[in-house]
Amino acid sequence: MATRPKKIGKINLFKIDYAKLGKEKGENSPTYNISGEMDGMGKVEGAGWISQTKAGETYLSCNINEPFDKGGVAPKKQDDDDLPF
Predict the structure, then answer these.
(1) Domain with 13 in it
(2) Residues contacting 49, CB < 8 A, separation 6+
(3) Distances (CA, A) of 45 to 12, 25, 48, 83, 84
(4) Could you give the number of structural domains in the chain?
């Protein structure tokens, strides 16, 4: 009897509605946003494109990345002891 492969995470694909976003889909724009979690990596994000092989077969091509770091640093909460008055 074959054993079932171990699940190593879960990702979700959300179709991007460019009209709802008020944007136009470019030739290289992704069709899907991807989010989820992978064992050993934690949260992941990515994008997916519907593509075709040279033979005309349709497939989904995806990139999986670490979540985007927006680069901001949360402001330090000021304690009452730090106030000059």
Answers:
(1) 9-67
(2) 30, 31, 32, 60, 61, 62
(3) 9, 20, 10, 41, 44
(4) 1
Structure tokens at 57: 């077969």
Q: Tokens at residue 15, please?
A: 């179709």
Q: Is residue 39 part of a domain?
A: yes
* Residue found by looking up tokens 């008055």 in the block: 85
pLDDT tens digit sequence for 37-68: 999 889 999 999 999 999 999 999 999 998 87
Question: Strands, E, within 21-57: which ranges?
Answer: 32-38, 42-52
CA-only gyration radius of the chain, Å: 21
Dihedral class, residue 26 (left if φ above 0, else alpha if ψ from -120 to 50, else beta):
beta
Read off the pTM. 0.67
Helix (H, G, I), strand (E, B) or coil at 22: coil
58 lies in some domain: yes
In a domain, 84, yes or no: no
